[in-house]
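Mods, move this if it's the wrong board.
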Amino acid sequence: MEVESTLLFETPARLFERVWRSYRPEGRPPAVRVEFHPFTSATSTIRLQKNCLHVKISDLLESAPAPVLESLAFILVAKLLRKPVPPLHRHRYRLYLNRRDVRRNLNLLRQIRGRKQYLPAKGSTYDLKEIFEELNAKFFHGLLAQPELGWSERPSRSILGHFDPAHNAIIISRVLDSPEVPRLAVEYVLFHEMLHLRYPVEHTGARRRVHHIEFRQAEQAFPGLAEARRILKSLR
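Not the wrong board. Structure tokens:
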């Protein structure tokens, strides 16, 4: 009870100073400057410059319970000092972020503050809207509502596609919009992201499952799955 009472009246700067001392008990701790910043996500950053610890925390977390902020402080300081993050604090922080109300608020922030930038769905080689309609009819009985579709501004080879639920958008890497890339590969990447529409991410406690068993089973229905993955592997 005494620890919880201390947390309630502890300023963010004092909190980070205390956590720093737990890792570096010797010597004088650096000055601490904590700012709640209007990020578009639950991002938080920390850096040590001229003996001052600069911390920026998403303002989404400004009203978070004191123990959650304490856990975040342990996570950030541990990463800065390249120390192991205590499992208790990692678990507590994930548990908070997985709360339904927090996820809802995070999506709202991303919608309001975040701008989704991408190129039109009709590329130089492939038309994503056309492919979406074909896949929708073939695998989803035409029941999936079409989200925003587009090609990425940068031709990423590491992230070939992603579904952004906050903006209801599927973005495919522009590296695939090429006559040298077989259509099968584009279809598979788009099909994979469409499955995220059909099978949303599951949140249970502190766990976040993106590709759960139903998702993986549905993915096996794609003809030429092995060949499509072989093609994509050769592009990386």
